[in-house]
Amino acid sequence: MTDNGTVVPLFKDPATPEEPTPTPAPASLAVVPEQREPSRPVRVFVRTRRTVVGAVKHERTRTVARVTVRHGAYLVGGTRITARRAWDGRTGARYQRMMRAAEAAGNYEAAGEWEERLHRFRAERHKRRMDLLKAPQDMARSAAYGTATGIGALIAVGIALAVATKDPGDVFTPLMALVELIRLLVVLITMVWGPLVAIGPWLALAGLWAVGRHQAAAPQWALPATSRTSNAGAPITPSIVVTALRDLGVAPLRSAIKEMGDAGAAMLGPIRIAGCGVEVDVTLPSGVSTNEVQTRRKKLAENLSRHEHEVFITIPEAARTVRLWIADSGALDEPIGPSPLVTDETMTADYIKGRAPWGQDLRGDAATLSLYQRHLLITGLSNQGKTAALRALALWLALDRRVEFRIADLKGAGDWAMFDGLATVLIQGPTDDHVIDATEMVEGLVEEMERRLQAPPGTKFDPLIGIVDEAQVAFMCPAVGDDKRPYGGSKATSRYFMAARKVHNQGRAVDVLLYEGTQDPTDQNLPKLVREGAHTRISLALGTESQARMALGDKAVDGGAAPHLLRQGLDKGTVVIASDGIKIPAGQASITVRTHYIDTATAALIAERAKALRDGVTTLTTVQDDEQERDALADIATVLGDNPRVLTADVLKRLTTLSEHTYGAWTPGDLKAVLDAAGASPYKSDGRMVVGRERVTRALTNRDTDGSASA
Predict the structure, then answer these.
(1) Phi-psi category of 261—alpha, beta or left, where left has phi over 0 and alpha has psi -120 to 50?
(2) Greatest mean pLDDT among 8-12, 374-378, 612-616
(3) Which burial class, exposed, middle or buried, applies to 614 when counting CB atoms under 10 A from its CB (0-12, 13-18, 19+)?
(4) Would you call 338 helix, strand, or coil by DSSP?
(5) With contact defined as beta carbons under 8 Å apart, do 659 and 628 qualify?
(6) Which end of the chain is more exposed for a tag (fewer CB within 10 A), N or C?
(7) Strands of 404-409's sheet, edge to edge?
């Protein structure tokens, strides 16, 4: 029984359903809370939120938003532009901006000129205002005189009309006609005034909108796609350059230009036509470094509506100045025409005073290169035209009959095959054996260099050019000689490395030069000491800035050289060159050249012209061992080749090439002694001593084989 008297039964009512007793969860299992379905208001909120977010992100909503923002910005921008123009026209704000811009650029002469113009403007404005003060009385006086004169004239016309019609009432007819005209004008104005007042503001707004639309006064993202790309390839003007610099993302530069206003063009020098583009010098405001502009080349090009490869930034001599060269849109994709080596079959070369016609610079001027006493290095990615560019220089040199070539093509694809009969040594192939031959060839250059250095003072020597194409194969060669010295590598024990270094150190003094071509320069396949030994450093397209620095040096890259920004596959044959052998604009460390392309078949024709200038050259395809005993008479027959007679001096030179160890120290007397002993003595032809092939061949045929004339 409870406190209120209610009786509570103590037994279980069978009619009452038994509630299930919850089973306790095992101790090892975690209790999972009951998942309840969200209430209806929550589900409605979630669906509503998804609908709103989807509607906001829908492309149609974005399009409507862009259109709304664009046309609103046109109206606001047009109002701002019109107000600014009106303010500039009524005040001296324009002249003051020009003065500040000239002072910021350090052009105080121009600043003084703008100050004088401001004074003239203020004086003329003051005169106009004084004239306005007298204008009311002048207008009243003029109106009175005009009215009296007009009425008098009308009455005179009326009198003449009355005399003609003999009706005195016609005296006032002209005057009444004027009154009626005035009444009609008042009625017309009354009818038109209401609509004009109603639509006038809308016309004004339409005019402001049109101004804003013409000036594209809206955020870039809100402009239509056609407007964003409509300036592609547009002519370069001062305002376009200033706007591009302003939007470059350099805060001090933007602030300085904003302070200058429209006079930011005062930073610019004259825009000059330069080949297939234009060139302009930009004097940067204080606080802005040239490096900040150089590192933003891509963004600057896009701001100028150009591709990155169509804008080049270099550093001239003037302080805080960058020189922009901006190509005409698509101009760099056009070919530059054939080489003069192809078009002029009478062309010859002069190693000492001549310059190789190699291509065109970006200004469209002919780019010619002096090769006199300059070691050369050319690098680039594979299949960018490296071999063709190097071969074009060698073909020009081949037209000077004094130049001797020793060539190792470590690719072996036949790119240098036309030099068979021009080069005294031509090695073609990529194997370790070919690298060994190439190394011995370069060591032969060292021996010839040392011989020349020890010659009597004043001795003149013909140029000797060693060319190693794909030199990275030599540096990476794992072969080791019998003396345990490796052929490749970049250490002092490397035979190829040390031979190249020796030629670089002293070869130019006696016209023994080394030209090397290599791919993807790294410290492993192009050691620092070798690449820095080249006087002329050339690079085609590369992959990274670090490779560009290896190819051209830090000075050239810091000065604007950017072969790593050339387009792989599209800028074939375009090189960046750092050398005193080519004309480079003052203040620049490098120049970009588009080289003439000479294909292999055409190169063979030029090589034939070069062979016609020579008496005939015996080309060796391997470097023979100089330690073996040699048959002097047989070697003489070899170097004579198919020529009926060869000058004794040329025979000595060819014998030296054949075996420096055996014949390097020979004199004309030694040659004469061997020939006299064999019965093939030299003789005079046209006043000069020559060796006859027929005599040497007969001596070889008739001599006793047991008593061969050996060295």
Answers:
(1) left
(2) 374-378
(3) middle
(4) coil
(5) no
(6) N
(7) 366-369, 356-361, 591-595, 574-578, 536-539, 376-380, 512-519, 464-469, 404-409, 425-428
| Cα distance between residue 374 and residue 535, in whole Å | 5
Instruction: For residue 403, give the 3-state DSSP assignment.
Output: coil
Which residue shows structure tokens 């609103």? 72
Distance, in Å, from the CA atom of 340 to the CA atom of 358, rounded to the nearest integer, reads 9
pLDDT value, residue 37? 57
> How do beta strands 277-283 and 321-327 pair?
antiparallel
d(CA 498, CA 487): 10
Three-state secondary structure call for residue 152: helix
User: Residues with Cβ < 8 Å from 198, sequence gap 6 or more?
Assistant: none
Average pLDDT of the residues in 384-406: 93
What whole-number distance in Å separates Cα of residue 603 and Cα of residue 393? 11
Q: How far is CA 454 from the centre of its chain?
A: 46
Residue 553 region by backbone torsions, left for phi larger than 0, else alpha for psi between -120 and 50, else beta: left
One-letter amino acid identity for 410?
A: L
- Copy the structure tokens of residue 550: 């290896």
The per-residue b/e assignment along 239-269, b for 16 or more CB within 10 angstroms, e otherwise, is ebbbebbbbbebeebeebbeebbbbbbbbbe
Distance CA 568, CA 574 (A): 10
Alpha-carbon distance of 288 to 250, in angstroms, equals 8
The Cα 337–Cα 358 span in angstroms is 11
Query: What's the rounded Cα separation, in Å, for the pair 310 and 304?
Result: 10
407 closest CA partner among 442, 377, 380: 442
Q: One-letter amino acid identity for 530?
A: V
Alpha-carbon distance of 469 to 407, in angstroms, equals 8
Q: How far is CA 129 from CA 35, 60, 118, 120, 414, in A?
A: 86, 55, 16, 14, 87
H or E segment at 361? strand 356-361
CA–CA separation, 122 and 100 (whole Å): 18
Are 590 and 556 contacting, i.e. CB atoms less than 8 angstroms apart?
yes
Between strands 591-595 and 574-578, the pairing is antiparallel
Residues in the chain: 711
User: At 367, which helix (H) or strand (E)?
Assistant: strand 366-369
Least confident of 98-107, 193-202, 419-428: 98-107
**Cβ 268 vs Cβ 282: under 8 Å:** yes
Which tens digits make up the pLDDT trace of 45-68?
667 777 777 776 777 877 888 888
Reduced 3-state DSSP string for 501-553: HHHHHHHHHHCEEEEEEEECCCCCCCCHHHHCCCCEEEECCCCCHHHHHHHHC
Residue 118 DSSP symbol: H
Q: Which 3 state secondary structure label does DSSP give 679?
A: coil
Which pair of tokens denotes residue 549? 């620095």
Q: b/e for 508-526, b at 16 or more Cβ within 10 A?
A: bebbbbbbbbbbbbeeebb
- Tokens encoding 106: 């350090």
Tens-digit pLDDT profile for residues 132-168: 888 888 888 888 888 888 888 888 888 888 888 888 8
Give the list of residues 6+ apart from residue 493 with CB closer than 8 angstroms, or none.
485, 486
